[in-house]
Specification:
The structure is a single chain. The chain is mainly α and about 220 residues long. It has 2 domains: about 90 residues, Cytochrome Bc1 Complex, Chain D, domain 2 (Orthogonal Bundle), CATH 1.10.760.10; about 80 residues, Orthogonal Bundle (Cytochrome Bc1 Complex, Chain D, domain 2), CATH 1.10.760.10. It contains 12 helices and no strands. Helix 3 packs across helix 7 and helix 10 crosses helix 11. The radius of gyration is 18 Å and the shape is globular. About 5% of the residues have low confidence. The structure holds heme C (2 copies). The site of one heme C (HEC) has 23 residues, from helix 9, helix 10 and helix 11.
């Protein structure tokens, strides 16, 4: 009986975190229909629809408080996917789930187009020595099977199709926190575990340095 209760609790913890073994990490498929929906997003309509987001993500998508990620200059395909993942509870965050829940497909495409149309946050030059992070970004580490971040996020940190996010100018607190969440598996909406596998191989020190590296690249 006790073992059964422990098992049920365990399964519920997994369910609660969106981590059912074998369940897909995201329900978003970039079909031609979804791509044309995202391409049809209207920035002007999106700006109006994002009025309720300003208090945390800033009037132009640049968060004033480092506890919240900036969205300005982010790719529309990635923004759309994150909003869907919050709504589908594939990226588990009760706060953002509440904001994503009322949005329909067109709202998400419009809001994504609005933030994507804005310039990235300004660069914040770092004082620290970021040599180790620069090597990971450009070359990765073959011994630990860590691919170069730039292979996917691009040399300038602006991401690429499909839905590989821009990291340039993002606040270091968000970058560090979300890499730790991939490492722990509490963020698990990355298809094929691509980021979870990489983050698991990184040390806490490397995560902190990579976060500063990308914050230092902005507009
Ligand atoms: C009360 C503060 C708050 C409000 C209001 C808010 N958000 Fe967020 N948002 C957050 C936090 C905190 C996170 C990071 C959550 C996480 O770690 O998953 C986040 C994350 C996001 C992300 C993912 C960013 C990334 O880099 O992956 C998107 C997209 C987003 N929010 C869009 C919106 C939109 C659109 C609205 C309005 C409809 C909104 N948010 C309203 C606090 C807020
Ligand atoms: C094989 C391609 C690939 C490589 C290599 C890669 N990434 Fe990613 N990364 C992705 C994808 C795809 C996502 C979006 C996953 C999702 O939908 O949640 C992502 C998401 C992220 C995010 C979340 C961004 C946000 O706004 O929340 C961070 C931070 C990140 N990667 C950092 C890194 C770092 C640092 C490295 C190098 C050590 C790296 N990535 C290497 C593909 C890659």
């Amino acid at each position: 009986m006790k073992r059964y209760i422990v098992m049920v609790l365990g399964v519920q913890l997994l369910l609660g975190a969106g981590m059912v073994p074998g369940a897909p990490s995201s329900l978003v498929a970039f079909t031609p229909q979804i791509r044309s929906l995202i391409a049809s997003g209207d920035p002007a309509r999106g700006k109006d629809k994002a009025a309720g987001c300003v208090s945390c993500h800033g009037a132009q998508g640049i968060a004033e408080n480092a506890a919240f990620p900036s969205l300005a200059g982010q790719r529309a395909d990635y923004l759309y996917k994150q909003l869907r993942d919050y709504k589908d509870e594939k990226r588990v965050n009760p706060l953002m789930a509440a904001f994503a829940q009322p949005l329909n497909e067109e709202d998400m495409a419009d809001i994504a187009a609005w933030y994507a149309s804005q310039p990235l946050p300004p660069a914040k030059p770092a004082d620290d020595d970021l040599g180790a992070a620069t090597t990971l970004v450009r070359r990765g580490d073959g011994k630990r099977l860590i691919p170069a971040c730039a292979a996917c996020h691009a040399a300038n940190g602006r991401g690429q199709a499909v839905a590989v996010p821009a990291l340039a100018g993002q606040n270091a607190a968000h970058l560090g926190q979300t890499l730790q969440a991939y490492k722990r598996g509490t963020r698990a909406n990355d298809v094929y575990s691509v980021m979870r596998n990489i983050a698991r191989a990184l040390s806490g020190e490397e995560i902190a340095q990579l976060a500063k590296y990308y914050e230092s690249l902005g507009e």
